């Protein structure tokens, strides 16, 4: 017989708002580092802190940012997609095939390109979810396939969009008259906003977190994990397609051999933005800040005439530092 | 005898996996309004039966009936829809989601097809938790809750489906007495004339308290069903293991003044522990008792360097030692057997001998960097024999062994390493009664051979039965050290519920306060 008053069931749980604030803190930290880096370059170089350069940084964020936003979903679900870089190049080539070779109307060709990206994602998703090939391997294979196909389809030569009227405007035009913001930046902001809403407020987003956090529990709760994984990879593929359109529209040509390396920059942006490679945690805002940090670094180092090789060394160190501080912070709160 | 149809009926069910016959002519009958305990040693077929009932696997033969109608679940979701909720032994929660999100996962309130209605989600969850009288915040992130509260989330989730049948697999494995009482209260409220509970547990005391009848299964076959009111614990255990077990009480001989092997002074961590001091003597089993969150496991982890210490000195046979990580500890002959064998203790995909050899691989089983397979196998086979590890061979993959045998593999691993100090964290968690007894004997033998043992356990009978002395903790501090003679359930609970700074009617402990 117990006479003592029964203690309450453990200590009072920490409230959800506190958790939310700590989640925000992560973004705030990333944002603060962005400001610090930006200020540093502004002081270090007289050419950095100008409106034109600001726009130029935003513009150069677009491709990596678009890829990174899509792949944020994959990474939160504890997956990885290495095929987005060469996949983007293949999509650019396909855009050339649709618009230049087949002469489809602009909107149709662009849509077809984006859907083609989705199709590559679908294949990734099926390989991962149905054939149960580990994401790293499945998308590594797709990376090689896409790289090869881009060269095969284009016959290893760039496809020029000179005759496709309006194509370049997708990236370089100015939709808002009088304001000097290129359309590509607006496109990125728009799709990031949609992705952010989907991630936090939709069924897709909820299950993305859930699968990344505990796949087995999610499955046992009656959720069709296979189907949702396919959806997640397909969804991310749409962004690869869009990035293919944006980069080729900006360059005025589809360059079949230029995709490799973008995937790692995009993954770096996601990770710098606080998304965990082991899944379950992350945000679109964080990813955008991560992508901006990478752009600011690239831009600033270039302006300071630091050689390309050293830029990569510094970027690598920044990734280590970002992930390490995140680790330390998490250890302290847990 | 009433002609009332069974709520859930299992009849003649067979299930085989490649190489294993998991269930043979299994049967079971759950009557409306009752709590039926299901007991059996690990490997008896309980979890296979659960997997059939939850639609993860399908039976090879036989049938299930719910309310007299054939019950054929095709998936966990389908099972829930048909009215059977199962709480699995391992938590099936998503740690990064909130309480409310976990409870309603897969059937979130939506606005339109795609968007979620989180406000309604939280309101619904709050209403549910209120109805169940559970003190949980719907917005709290599940991964940050205590194990007990996570268990409550599981239960809230299961009950939210308004099931006819609730099946709980070892629901109290991680709960303290007060939490178990809360859980039993919930079960009693859930059990109405048209619902029933199947309660899988190894704890006889609990079965006595909560269940109406108990069904015993062994080696995949039905053995018997007894009325709890008339059955005795030894009866049930004898049916489970197929032989009688003597439940002797109290440690076999108390050691008075053996020399101190391990001395810990003023151990502290930033998050919880504060000024933890104790001595471990040669050949002693030192029990660590306390409620959940009192810091028992944290002491072990800080001691072996798995967590960072903020203060404290550790001496081994009188000499101060530096332990920066578990490898240092192992080198000094201190072995830590984690409470979570599967995560921290075993390479589940590797075979038995690889696991046994793991920690001593470099100092005992290599020559010029190459593994000496022959020597390794011989030693592994010796230990399989002496610890009575039930495995077809040393080559068996560890994940296929039962919980008790897995635990023995972990013990073997540290014995190979010749550890003098062994720290057992919940040595019998998830292990059935028969195998528990063997683990107890093994601990006693090890102590008799001069090993010094720290045993952390949330089961008081286990602490009382084995410990020569008991260290009781509360909120990160040591609140009492009891000799075997003083150590009673009541005494331990008194110290375990002390708040640091309070005293257990021992005025001298207030000394030092201003």
Topology:
The complex is a heterodimer of chains A (334) and B (514).
Chain A: H1 16-44, H2 51-76, H3 84-101, H4 106-129, H5 135-154, E1 159-160, H6 169-172, H7 183-201, H8 203-213, H9 215-220, H10 225-251, E2 253-254, H11 262-272, H12 284-303, H13 308-333
Antiparallel strand pairs in A: 1-2
Helix pairs in contact in A: 1-12, 2-7, 2-8, 2-10, 2-11, 2-12, 3-4, 3-5, 3-10, 4-5, 4-10, 7-8, 8-10, 11-12, 12-13
Chain B: E1 8-17, E2 20-30, E3 35-39, H1 46-53, E4 61-66, E5 69-70, H2 76-82, E6 84-87, H3 99-103, E7 110-111, E8 115-116, H4 118-132, H5 147-160, E9 165-169, H6 177-190, E10 196-200, H7 204-210, E11 213-218, E12 221-227, H8 233-241, E13 260-268, E14 276-281, E15 285-290, H9 296-303, E16 311-316, E17 319-320, H10 326-331, E18 334-337, H11 341-345, H12 352-357, H13 361-364, E19 366-367, E20 370-371, H14 373-386, H15 403-416, E21 421-425, H16 433-448, E22 452-456, H17 460-466, E23 469-474, E24 477-483, H18 489-496
Parallel strand pairs in B: 3-10, 3-11, 6-9, 9-10, 15-22, 15-23, 18-21, 21-22
Antiparallel strand pairs in B: 1-2, 1-4, 4-5, 7-8, 11-12, 13-14, 13-16, 16-17, 19-20, 23-24
Organism (chain B): Streptomyces hainanensis
Domain ABC transporter (chain B): 8-244, 254-500
InterPro entries (chain B): AAA+_ATPase (IPR003593), ABC_carbohydrate_import_ATPase (IPR050107), ABC_transporter-like_ATP-bd (IPR003439), ABC_transporter-like_CS (IPR017871), P-loop_NTPase (IPR027417)
